[in-house]
Structures are given as structure tokens and as C-alpha cells.
């Protein structure tokens, strides 16, 4: 973590205070003890004691022992010897303050002790938090100070622990510029004077072991800035948080390391079939009780996972599950990066969901947001009274598009915090990958900014060199530590080599979303078929760059919100034609090179655009056109997984070959998909409502061909135009000696293979 810049006035004051305390306990006759301790008390209350551990707790002095305690609300306090349970001393209140002192001239060495506290209405025995040693070892301090601790969450945050046989919780938080940091909660009546933390100036971390606390206790950090302002902050590394609108952190044991599974590495590989079902957990399906609550992680494991598996998807991608205060952000404004949102249950419940997905053969991908964070007061904003996680200058630290703050990627501690979080989700919950949101906004300093509203990099350019270095470091570390996992970039520009290795000058992502393909093809599909011939290039342009990156073809949540309408509503024509258009489009997508992603509800043709506050319209499945579309998606996934030619060589020209790309008049496209052994699938799409009879296409080999998918089949709601077995003829077409005369159904995509 960041080293604290020296505050010479602050240091001078504390040197004087400590010297004064040493002088005080020499028993100089000229110094009245109570008046002197009153000065000490005021210093503690003002947060001006650089290390309360030098004042409070048990200390040697002049051959004896002194014990000091600050216990607001206490009536009487006694020191109890922990080993025997006997009363060692009765503590004396200093004046009318809450400071208690016991001097024991008959004891030469410190000993384990507790306090017996009379609160007026009850008595309580408590361990003294100020009797325990530092939590962080020298190596921890060094790694944190250098920003090279790949798992900072193992040391920072709240960890149930036991010291000297006493159970409790170890707390640590990075706040290098704070004047004081305290742990507060119900356990100390939210009184920041009770548990003021020890400052480790070498790494800017405040730490403390608080006895008697356990899992389930709520807490925050009370941070006093040098300006004197006091704020209550949630723990940046908390593993669990309260359900909104409450904002406190909850003590939660750190999840165990999730065993790396070899089958996940192969399932996530470039040659594997990857078909992703993107889900917003809060609105996939609501319980029957009038939508008054969400399904829990465990209920989602019971219903969502079998559903996705039945439809043939290989992965489920979840919109962000990090804790976030505002439902309307869908998780994209996170305040608790390390905490699975409590909306749906506990971290253990979320782990249950991931394990259930893996047991069903499904991978889990999480949307992850290192691009920005909200300015909610309990979050990271001005965490220690300064712009600790963000930039001071709004030209670097504020997103005008989202009204949120930007991480300072150039600060090694911030970079370490984010890299550690990425590793945390993969290593502790076993997720298969992270889809990194808004990468384009990270790469460019002028993103959504007018001239004069941004600061060029050190070379005068627009690239955010610090963000680029962070992304590369993250991908390298994840690749080295958990090679079975993948990362995906939502990146909407032509930034080069997003999904190329760092050693090759790339950013190191496994995959990149092909947003260009999505925009072009949707623009084509919204056209009336009569006019599609004028937009023919939009369907073939993606093949000009399809192998420059490892692409995922995304029809995501972003395409069915903000008045864009549903996927079905964007198709032209009457109801039958809209469904036929959408079926043909999905067939084209599943045949096109690149992994697949489909947002929930798109698989059965929602009429309305997505409403994050409601539920999908599951009642539509009683109607044949909707259930037929769902059946097509299931069959497309089955064919996609079953025929290696459709997925094995996705990112190399060897896996693709055009047959027909130059027939705009008929709006027909046809191409080959090939695997490593030369097996192939023929894909034919007709984007007009007219069937094309005796349409000749060149084919690689002599033989008999059969349909494996026809989106116009009656079982999907189509017109039923189809081909039986087709015999290749020795008629030259499209540069090939053999060809087929096929019937291409209206508004359809068909796939053909050679009959075995």
C-alpha cells in the first residue's frame, strides 16, 4: 500500500506527547497526574495520538506496570488476571473523563488480562484490544507497500482470527493520509473512541485485533481526515455487506481456495464450443409471491442452471454480482468489489451456485467493473479524506458519461487492489472468467470528453498508459496463477491486439466482444427485406477483420434497453416475419466465426424490452412462435457443440471460406465452416421472404448432403420449406467442381453436412 508522506507537525506533536507520558510516570512531584492525563485524554479524543497503542493497554514503567483504558460509558473498571481470574487491580477514573488507569508497582512484567466493566445496568468481562500485538508481519508490510501482494485481501479487511487463545477479528485497512481510523459497530455502540487502530506507517495501513467479534458482526471504519472531517466507510475488502439500503460491512470468513479443475481449462479454450447465456439475476425470474423478493443464489441454482443446461448453453454470464447500492445500476456501480451482493444470499450461497453450475457442466463468467466506481459516501470516494483511489483532477478522475469516479491506475496500491480482486473471484469462487466492462473508457483519456476536458499522457497522446499497464498486469497474473480461467474485454474501438498476449504487444485478454459485428448485423436486420440489398456489406464486413482478435459475438443486455426495444421488436414485418427474421439471424450468428452470447429473454422472443425491475415474460412460452424460437436456440446449441467445424477453428482464416457473398439482389449468403481435420458445415442464409428454388452453391466434395438445421422448419414456427437429401453434381460453381442445387427457404438459415 502507499507509503504515507510525513506530516512533520503531527510527528512533532506525538513525540512531545510520548515524552510527556514518560515524564508523567516518573512520578515527578511537580506534575499532578490527573491534570496531565486529562491532556492525554483530549489528545486521544481529538484523534491526535499517532499510535493509541503507545498510550492505551498495558505498559512497563519505572519497574512496575501501568494499564490504561478508554471506555466511554463505563462506571467502574477492574483488571482481571486472565490465567487465574483474580482481580489484579481496580482502575481509577481520571477526573470526569472516560479514561481509566491502574498502576501496579508489585508487577514487573506484563501479563494476560481482561477488564471487568461495570456499565451501570450490567457487568461484562472483556479482553482489551490494546494488549494484542501487530497483525501484519514484516513481509506483509513490505509487499503491501510495494504493491506486489497479489492477494491483498488475505491481509486487508476483516478476518476471524484467534490470538493467544482469544477469538476475535483482525481488521486492516489502507488509509495512509488519515489522522485516525477506528473500527466501529454494534459491539462498541458505533463509538470511534473505543477501537482506534494502530498505524503502520511503512505501508499506510491501519490495523487492529478486536476480541470477542465473530462472523456475522457488522462494522465500518470511522475515518478522521487531517482536516478533522469524520466519515463512516464500508470496508473496501469486505467479503460480505448488508442488503441495501443499509451499507455496513459484515464479518465473513475468507472463502477457501477453489480447486482448479482441468475440465474447465478445456471448456474455456479457444477450440471449445462457447455459448454464453447472459443473465441479470434479479430479473430472470421472480418468485410467485407477487415479485416481492428475488430468487436466492440457491434457488437460482435450482432453476436457472437446469434451464441454461437444457437449452445447450455452455456458460452462464452474470451481470455484476459485486455489492452495489443502487438496483438501477444493475451492479455496474459497485461499492463492494469483494462481496457477492447480499440481495440473493451469502457468499456461501453464491459459492453453492458456482459449484452447482460446474456440476452441471456449465461455466460461470462474471461481469467485472474496474473502469469506475460510484461516489456514494460510504464507498471509496475520498476514502481517507483525500482522493486515494481516484484522481484529484476531474479531467482524469470523473466519468462524465456515468457520473462516476475513475480509479487511479498509476497508483501501485490501487492497481494491486484491483488485480487482487480479479484473482479473488477466480481463485476463491472458481468462476471461469471475467468479462471486463467498459474497457474502451479505460484505454483512452479523452473517452466521452470534449477538447480541453482531458489531460494527454506524458507523450502528448490520448492513450491511458497507466490503465493499459494495469490491464496487462492483470491478465498476466491471472494467466500465470489460474490458467484455466479466461478474461473477456467489452471494447468498442479498433484498439490493436486486445486479445493478443502481452509478450506480443497485446493487452492479454482471452477474448474480445465483437461490437462491430453486432452493430452492423443488427442494422442490416432492421431493414425491410426489400432494401437489404443496399446494405449487403454490413453482413459480410465482419469477415474482413474476424480473425484479428479472438471474438465473442454478443447480443447482450445493452441491445434490449434504453428504448432500443427487444430483439424481436427490432425485426421488420408482421409477427410471422419478425420471428422468421430473428430465427434466420440467430442461425447466421451460430454459423459465423466467434463464440456466442445471448441475453436472457432473447431466446424465446420477448416483446417488451428488458425491465430490470420485473421478470421475463415466461407466459409467452405457451405460444408456438415463442416456444419454437426457444427450441431453435436449443437445437442451434446442440449442433454447435456436436459439429467441431462450427467452433474448433474460430480465430483463424483456415476455419472459414466464403461460398456466396456477392449476391445482394437475392440477399443470400453462404459459407463453409471447417475444423482441423477438414470436416465442414455449409451455412446458407436467405434474408428475403421469397424462397430461392434451385439455388446453386459450390461444395468441396462429391457426395450426399443433409440438413442439420433449418430455421424455417415447422417445429420452430416456420413455413416448412426444406431440402431432403441432396446429391452433389459435377457442375462448376463458385470456383468448385461440385455443386448442389438447393431450395433456400424464406427468411431462413440452413446448415448442411455430408451424409456419413
Poorly predicted spans: 1-13, 22-32
What is Rg?
32 Å
Major sheet: size, sense and barrel closure? Answer: 8 strands, parallel, barrel
Quickly give the structural class: alpha+beta
Distance between the termini: 63 Å
Work out the number of β strands. Answer: 36
Helicity, as a percent range: 10-25%
Give the overall shape, derived from the CA principal axes: elongated
Query: So how many helices?
Result: 14
Task: Please describe what this structure looks like.
- By secondary structure, the protein is of the alpha+beta class.
- The strands form 9 sheets. Strands 17-18-21-24-25-26-27-28 form an 8-stranded parallel beta barrel. It has a 6-stranded antiparallel sheet with strand order 29-30-31-36-33-34.
- Residues 1-13 and 22-32 have low confidence and may be disordered.
Give structural attributes.
alpha+beta; six-stranded antiparallel sheet; 36 strands; elongated; disordered N terminus
Short description:
Helices cover 22% and strands 25% of the residues. It has 756 residues and is an alpha+beta fold.
Write the layout of secondary structure elements.
Layout: H1 8-24, H2 33-45, E1 57-61, E2 64-70, E3 76-81, E4 87-90, E5 92-93, E6 99-104, E7 113-118, E8 123-127, H3 138-146, E9 157-163, E10 166-174, E11 178-184, E12 198-200, E13 205-211, E14 218-225, E15 230-233, E16 249-250, H4 262-267, E17 275-279, H5 297-310, E18 315-318, E19 322-323, E20 336-340, H6 347-359, E21 363-368, H7 394-397, E22 398-399, E23 404-405, H8 412-429, E24 433-436, H9 439-443, H10 465-481, E25 486-489, E26 511-513, H11 515-525, H12 537-540, E27 551-555, H13 575-591, E28 595-599, H14 624-642, E29 656-663, E30 668-674, E31 680-686, E32 692-699, E33 704-710, E34 726-727, E35 738-744, E36 748-754
Parallel strand pairs: 17-18, 17-28, 18-21, 21-24, 24-25, 25-26, 26-27, 27-28
Antiparallel strand pairs: 1-2, 2-6, 3-4, 3-7, 5-6, 7-8, 9-10, 10-13, 11-14, 12-13, 14-15, 14-16, 19-20, 22-23, 29-30, 30-31, 31-36, 32-35, 33-34, 33-36
Amino acid at each position: 500500500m502507499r507509503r504515507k508522506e510525513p506530516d512533520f507537525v503531527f510527528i512533532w506533536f506525538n513525540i512531545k506527547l510520548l515524552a510527556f507520558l514518560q515524564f508523567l510516570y516518573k512520578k515527578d512531584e511537580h506534575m499532578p497526574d490527573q491534570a496531565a492525563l486529562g491532556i492525554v485524554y483530549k489528545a486521544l479524543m481529538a484523534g491526535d495520538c499517532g499510535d493509541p497503542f503507545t498510550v492505551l493497554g498495558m505498559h512497563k514503567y519505572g519497574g512496575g506496570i501501568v494499564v490504561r483504558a478508554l471506555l466511554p460509558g463505563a462506571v467502574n473498571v477492574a483488571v482481571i488476571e486472565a490465567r487465574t481470574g483474580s482481580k489484579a487491580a481496580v482502575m481509577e477514573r481520571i477526573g470526569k473523563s472516560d479514561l481509566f488507569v491502574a498502576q501496579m508497582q508489585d508487577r514487573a512484567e506484563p501479563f494476560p488480562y481482561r477488564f471487568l466493566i461495570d456499565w451501570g445496568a450490567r457487568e461484562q468481562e472483556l479482553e482489551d484490544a490494546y494488549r494484542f500485538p501487530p497483525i501484519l508481519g514484516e513481509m506483509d508490510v513490505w509487499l503491501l507497500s510495494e504493491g506486489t501482494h497479489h492477494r491483498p485481501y488475505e491481509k486487508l479487511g476483516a478476518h476471524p482470527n484467534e490470538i493467544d487463545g482469544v477469538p476475535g477479528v483482525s481488521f486492516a485497512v489502507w488509509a495512509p493520509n488519515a489522522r485516525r481510523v477506528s473500527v466501529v459497530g454494534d459491539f462498541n455502540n458505533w463509538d470511534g473512541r473505543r477501537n482506534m487502530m494502530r498505524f503502520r506507517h511503512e505501508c499506510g495501513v491501519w490495523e487492529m485485533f478486536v476480541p470477542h467479534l465473530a462472523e456475522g458482526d457488522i462494522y465500518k471504519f470511522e475515518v478522521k481526515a487531517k482536516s478533522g472531517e469524520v466519515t463512516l466507510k464500508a470496508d473496501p475488502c469486505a467479503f460480505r455487506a448488508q442488503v441495501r439500503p443499509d451499507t455496513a460491512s459484515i464479518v465473513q470468513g475468507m472463502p477457501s481456495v477453489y480447486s482448479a479443475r482441468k475440465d474447465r481449462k478445456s471448456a474455456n479454450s479457444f477450440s471449445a464450443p462457447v455459448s454464453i447465456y447472459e443473465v441479470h439475476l434479479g430479473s430472470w425470474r421472480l418468485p410467485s409471491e407477487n415479485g416481492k423478493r428475488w430468487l436466492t443464489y440457491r434457488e437460482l441454482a435450482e432453476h436457472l442452471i437446469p434451464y441454461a443446461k437444457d437449452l445447450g448453453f455452455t456458460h452462464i454470464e452474470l451481470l455484476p454480482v459485486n455489492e452495489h447500492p443502487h438496483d438501477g445500476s444493475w451492479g455496474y456501480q459497485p461499492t463492494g468489489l469483494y462481496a457477492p451482493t447480499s440481495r440473493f444470499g451469502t457468499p456461501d450461497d453464491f459459492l453453492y451456485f458456482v459449484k452447482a453450475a460446474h456440476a452441471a457442466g456449465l461455466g460461470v463468467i462474471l461481469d467485472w467493473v474496474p473502469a469506475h466506481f460510484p461516489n456514494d459516501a460510504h464507498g471509496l470516494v475520498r476514502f481517507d479524506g483525500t482522493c486515494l483511489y481516484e484522481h484529484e483532477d476531474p479531467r482524469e478522475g470523473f466519468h462524465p458519461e456515468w457520473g462516476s469516479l475513475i480509479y487511479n491506475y498509476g497508483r501501485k496500491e490501487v492497481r494491486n487492489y484491483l488485480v487482487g480482486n480479479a484473482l479473488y473471484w477466480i481463485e476463491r469462487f472458481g468462476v471461469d472468467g471475467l468479462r471486463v466492462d467498459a474497457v474502451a473508457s479505460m484505454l483512452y483519456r479523452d473517452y466521452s470528453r470534449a477538447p480541453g476536458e482531458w489531460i494527454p499522457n506524458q507523450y502528448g497522446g490520448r492513450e491511458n498508459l497507466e490503465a493499459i499497464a494495469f490491464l496487462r498486469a492483470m491478465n498476466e497474473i491471472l494467466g500465470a496463477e489460474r490458467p484455466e480461467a479466461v478474461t473477456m474485454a467489452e471494447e468498442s474501438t479498433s484498439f490493436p491486439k486486445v486479445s493478443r498476449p502481452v509478450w506480443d504487444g497485446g493487452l492479454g485478454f482471452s477474448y474480445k466482444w465483437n461490437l462491430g459485428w453486432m452493430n452492423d448485423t443488427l442494422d442490416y436486420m432492421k431493414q425491410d427485406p426489400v432494401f437489404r440489398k443496399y446494405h449487403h456489406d454490413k453482413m459480410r464486413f465482419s469477415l474482413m477483420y474476424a480473425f484479428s482478435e479472438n471474438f465473442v459475438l454478443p447480443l447482450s443486455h445493452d441491445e434490449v434497453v434504453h428504448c432500443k426495444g427487444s430483439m424481436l421488436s427490432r425485426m421488420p414485418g408482421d409477427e410471422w416475419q419478425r420471428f422468421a427474421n430473428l430465427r434466420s439471424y440467430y442461425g447466421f450468428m451460430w454459423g459465423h466465426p466467434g463464440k456466442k452470447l445471448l441475453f436472457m429473454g432473447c431466446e424465446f422472443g420477448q416483446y417488451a424490452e428488458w425491465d430490470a425491475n420485473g421478470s421475463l415474460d415466461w407466459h409467452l412460452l405457451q405460444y408456438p412462435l415463442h416456444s419454437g424460437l426457444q427450441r431453435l436456440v436449443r437445437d442451434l446449441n446442440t449442433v454447435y457443440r456436436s459439429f467441431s467445424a462450427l467452433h474448433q477453428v474460430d480465430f483463424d482464416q483456415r476455419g472459414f471460406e466464403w461460398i456466396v457473398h456477392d449476391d445482394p439482389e437475392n440477399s443470400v449468403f453462404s459459407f463453409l465452416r471447417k475444423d482441423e481435420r477438414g470436416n465442414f458445415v455449409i451455412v446458407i442464409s436467405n434474408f428475403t421472404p421469397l424462397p430461392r428454388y434451385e439455388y446453386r452453391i459450390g461444395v468441396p466434395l462429391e457426395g450426399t448432403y443433409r440438413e442439420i438445421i433449418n430455421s424455417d422448419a415447422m417445429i420452430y414456427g416456420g413455413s416448412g420449406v426444406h431440402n431432403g437429401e441432396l446429391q452433389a453434381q459435377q457442375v462448376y460453381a463458385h470456383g468448385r467442381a461440385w455443386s448442389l442445387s438447393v431450395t433456400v427457404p424464406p427468411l431462413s438459415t440452413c446448415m448442411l453436412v455430408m451424409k456419413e
